[in-house]
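Per-residue structure
===
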Amino acid sequence: MFQFKRWIAMAGLGLAAAQAATAGTFVYVSNIDSGDIRAYRLQTEPKAHLESLGAWPAGKVVMPMAVSPDLKHLYASVRSQPFAISQYDIDPVSGKLNWRGSVPMADSMVYISVDRTGQWLLATSFGGHVNATQKIDREGRLASSQAQVFKSGGVNPHSIVLDQSNRFAYVPQLGTDEIRIHKFDPQSPQPLSEQAEVVKVKALSGPRHIVISSDNKYAYVLTEMTGQVLVYERNIDTGSLTLIQSVASQPDNTTLVPGRPRPPTGGNQVQDFDDSNMIFCAEIKLTPNGQFLFTSERTKSTLSTFKVDTQTGRIERVAITPTEEMPRGFNIDPSGQYLVATGQKSQMVSLYSIHPQTGALNQIERVPGGQGANWVTFVKTSGL
């Protein structure tokens, strides 16, 4: 009997080990010029390493990506005509993608996100100045047409992000220097309110991307043209924002000057000014524990690190790190221990460790990537 019980216990341990072995942390990078999505497995033992898993076609000017809450489906916006969202299933063991077709979009969508119920995809268009919502069925498939398409109310919206309660959507409008706050109801056939509360931002700053703290108390907005991180206290009941701090992401002695709005990616407009010495900020991310915040700047190709006071929401810039050329996209793994950065003018992908006490970035390796890399998404699966 003792041997039988011991065998059962060992079998249980073996099963647990096998299940753990099938789990994985995967990184997906979309590439404008390659027109594909490249996947990597983030290995942490015996040392951190990005293992290439291959590339999957998506379409020229594939850019923003979003993942379903159950981590089974990936969506990617193709910003060349005909505008579309490509849909993929994620293999939970291998991390490989299975293309499940594409659906047309009303415009070139610069940012997409999935609500916390997994029922809706939200999108916004920089060049078309519109917001849209699209129903997602129980199998993770997008409806063939949008439930809503309406004018954003501002000019050049650049991201659309829901708060932790899934009740408010924040849409920074780069061209009109404002943040619009829309109510969101996933049970409604048209879930995004067209009316919005407007929060004005300093003129010619260009609010671009926004991230909400995990406790839902604070919002952080990166301005593309002035490189400021705007720290807002959130009213959890109303969604309203109150500015409490503005911190430069660039050093005090920077030679860069404030930038100007660029033409939409994938459009026919030609840029008629020299931006080689202009601030050109892009992405903003928080570590899962909320203790560190990172931003990217594309002209000098740097990542800025900020320490966050999680009690007050206030931040302090503590480091600036060189990275891949023109870092439009980067992201942080779900454990908060690693950061992956890409460069739109680099064909390499950088893996960094994040120091748990200081937030300092240490480059571990650079691995081959695609052409025109711009978006990084992490998925941590539990296996089968």
